[in-house]
Amino acid sequence: MSPDAEGAAAALPGHNSGQRCVFDESARRIKENSRFLAGGVSSNFRLGISPTPLVFERGEGACLFDVDGNRLIDYYLAMGPMILGHNPAVVRSAVEAQLARGILYAGQTDLEAQAARKVCEMVPCAERMRFASSGSEVVQAAFRLARAATGRRTIIKFEGHYHGWFDNVLWSNAPTLEAAGPEEAPNRIAGSKGQELEAGGGIEILSWNRLDLIEKRLARGDVAGVIMEAAMCNAGAVQAAPGYLEGVRAACTKHGTMLIFDEVITGFRLAPGGAQQRFGVTPDMATFAKAIANGFPVAAIAGRADVLDLFGQGVLHGGTFNAQPVAIAAALATMNALTPEVFATIERRGRRLMDGIRSELTAAGHKVVVTGWGQFFHVAFDLDAPARNYRDLVRMNKAKYVKFTTALLGHGVRALERGAWFMSIEHDDAIVDQTLEAVKKAARDIGAA
Ligand SMILES: Cc1ncc(COP(=O)(O)O)c(C=O)c1O
User: Fold this and answer.
1) From ligand 1's centre to the CA of 158, what distance in Å?
2) Residue of 133, 162, 268, 269 best suited for mutating to test ligand 1, as the one with most atoms within 8 Å of CB
3) Considering the domain 108-337, what is its CATH architecture?
4) Rounded to the nearest 5°, which phi and psi values hold at 118?
5) Distance from Cα 71 to the centre of ligand 1, integer Å
6) Per-residue pLDDT reduced to its tens digit, 405-438
7) Distance, CA of 443 to chain centre
8) What one-character DSSP code corresponds to residue 325?
9) pTM of the model
10) d(Cα 409, Cα 51) in Å, to the nearest integer?
């Protein structure tokens, strides 16, 4: 930002102005837009946010600017994608260069081949890959490949893990403890009204981080695939127990089951090669989206050559927008910018923010657990210890946390109500300091427990 722009921005309500942010114009527009746009939003995950879903005018670096004239330090980062921050010059110029050459060809491009090669260089499991447009889609592709490769039907998914909104996989993402049943044999709980219940017939639910349970289930020899977030990030920021990922890997190999890591959040975020690189366990396939293209709709499925090559042997994978050249230009520019130094820098600043949040909240008398990694972490109130799985995490004090994020927003910091915090390379030490000031004020606003 130029010094002039910085001076002008400093006058706005927001994180460093001393003025409390209000969101009346966003609320008014959401109501008005709801006459045409269902709920005033284009995704259910943007509904019901306190005090109102927001309407934005622009994003730059670590900040978003809304229609009320607030400048907000942003930790949603579009639910994960913006690892280089909002509107980075490297991505913008790659996109502009491609735009001058056309938009969509229904054919191959050199950019697409370069981006595919880059994915295969960065990601340990990636011998081959394909592009698509959303995480939900590539999960479906992984299921189809797993079933074709094994001749089996059943896919195991874990409680609290999210793999997209389609009927066959939207199960037990956020069940109540009453509905969830026993930990040894969880119920399969539908995630939406209107869901085709028969579509869940190919999915079985297990509790995550219990090696005994998955080993026992796989030993029956009829499971096509196991899908998991290799670090649980849609609920909490929970690392697998020591030996768990290795144990699941060994059991899948032993029983001829495809291990699928859903790296839609962790990919290109926890490390250049994702969670599989950071934790040193290589799946048969992995799915990516979000941070791969810093905000452009690009997803990828990558994995073993013999499995991905089934796409040329009767397994169908389509998509009009797959490898859309403008979006792929963004993906290639993003991946080229994601050097090990970028991850190390985000790690250091993120750890400082985690420590600061923990100590500000504790100093104000709150009981708080902060878990995760510098690039992505989670804050929970009133847990006795870090969660090991969904059932532990669901006991956190969600109502109090929503009060906290609502108060934070008033002080110019936007953080997700589910406790997740995404970091970007634009969240520098000054931004971390400003965030911690806002945390201190919000901690006071909500009062001690
Ligand atoms: C782990 C994981 N898998 C899949 C998806 C679905 O991706 P998309 O929203 O791009 O369809 C998400 C989205 O948040 C996700 O976090």
Assistant:
1) 15
2) 162
3) 3-Layer(aba) Sandwich (3.40)
4) -65, -45
5) 27
6) 999 999 999 999 999 999 999 999 999 999 999 9
7) 26
8) H
9) 0.96
10) 9
